[in-house]
Amino acid sequence: MSAISADGKNSGQGALGTWRLAAFALPCVPVAAMLMPVVVYLPNYYATDLGVSLTAIGLAFGIVRLFDLWLDPTLGFLIDRTNTRFGRFKPWLVAGLPIAVLAVWMLFMARPGIDGNYILLWLVLGFLGQSMATMAHVTWAARLAPEYGQRARVFSWWQGFTVLGMLIVLAMPPLMKLGFGLDYGQGVRAMGWFVVLSLPVAILLALLAVHEPKSPPNTQPANWRHYLDLIRRPSILRILGSDILLGTGPVIAGTLFFFYFEAIRGWDRSEAGLLLLLYFIGALMGAPLWGRLGLAIGKHRALAIASAAYAVAQLSVLIAPEGLVWGIVTMTLAGLPYSAGPILLRAMMADLGDEERLKSGVDRSGLMFGLLSGVVKIGSAVAVFASVSALEAFGFKADLGAENATQALRVLAISFAVVPALLALAGAALITGHSLDKASHDEIRKALEVRDAAQTSAEQRATHTNY
């Protein structure tokens, strides 16, 4: 596959090769290392070690997800209207850094005595800083790669580094315990230190490694009416609906992961952490596979296959035999489909962004990725709140583990495995109707190149005339 140049075109000179692309994707490592523990480790840590009630935790996470619902679309709108001498995306990436670092410190260094209000405040600020950086980064990534296959490559790197960040941070608690004798709480604080130290370095390297591509000419600036236009389009609604269905299941499974493996499988948190590490090793192995399969058979078909595979893998956890070997095999295979959704849905939304720009004359990529990022948080907000609240409603107590009532353990198993599998199958059915394939996108790109060249030429003639 040809390299991707800094201006987003295929070229052999000035190309964005492997090392520059790696540097560009590097911020995904600490951002993932920030987000993964927030969903997977912190609810369990706050409940079990710091004594915060499950209801307070679920309410705080639910509220912050609803805050996120409007945050990402708003940021996407503002990014589309940003035009500074430093670029369109870089100012937002830099501005989100100090907010995210401060919030990470307060969340991961929390001590006994905190309550739901403390968690809510720092979650809000943490998601604000993270969203500012991530929205700018993902929109910038979409602009780097204009062609159908290139986008799968860029977002494969994006997702690969995201999974790498998850692997690093998930390895910390068990390795800290085994290698240094640190307890679980110290392992959680080590995660926070990793993010605080690595996020500034990663963002700096990305800014230095890659220049922003020139923004395409717009016939009109983005405005709020464009959101209404976008959500009326069936093709965009299909992507958004698929993202909700395919993104909510892993959030539910992640939230309940430690509860399930401690209470039902009998693993302690360090052992369960190693299983989760294997799950994301599988996800890292699968990342390049889904990008290549998407190019070979179409992104939507590859995503449908991955979604069905995820459903089967999730259900297999319920019937897998006891024992370390089966745990290793099951969790590694279950992780293989994980990366497909983030890679292929982002690439498909970027393709639809070209189609939208051809129709409207407006680059709405920030708006579109704001919607893509925001709508999945609808499902996530409901998922975290509903899953932990359901456990509490059926009498599940985190500190009782396997001593919980049979009914509570049954609800835990269904919520962890069956619900995510059903959501994945629904997502697979929905995405099969996607119609923008490589041939159609190639025609769109040709039309855009012709129009952009004509508009640029007209602007240059007008400038010379005025001069």
UniProtKB/TrEMBL annotation:
The keyword Glycoprotein does not apply. Keywords: Cell membrane, Membrane, Transmembrane, Transmembrane helix, Transport. Belongs to the sodium:galactoside symporter (TC 2.A.2) family. SUPFAM superfamilies: MFS general substrate transporter (SSF103473). InterPro entries: MFS_2, MFS_trans_sf, Na/Gal_symport_CS. The keyword Ribosomal protein does not apply. GO terms for cellular component: plasma membrane. GO terms for biological process: carbohydrate transport; sodium ion transport. The chain crosses the membrane at residues 21-44, 50-71, 92-114, 120-142, 154-172, 192-210, 235-260, 272-290, 302-319, 325-345, 366-388, 408-431. Pfam families: MFS_2. GO terms for molecular function: symporter activity. This is Sodium:galactoside symporter. It is a multi-pass membrane protein. It is found in: Cell membrane. It comes from the Bacteria. It comes from Caulobacter henricii. Gene3D superfamilies: MFS general substrate transporter like domains.
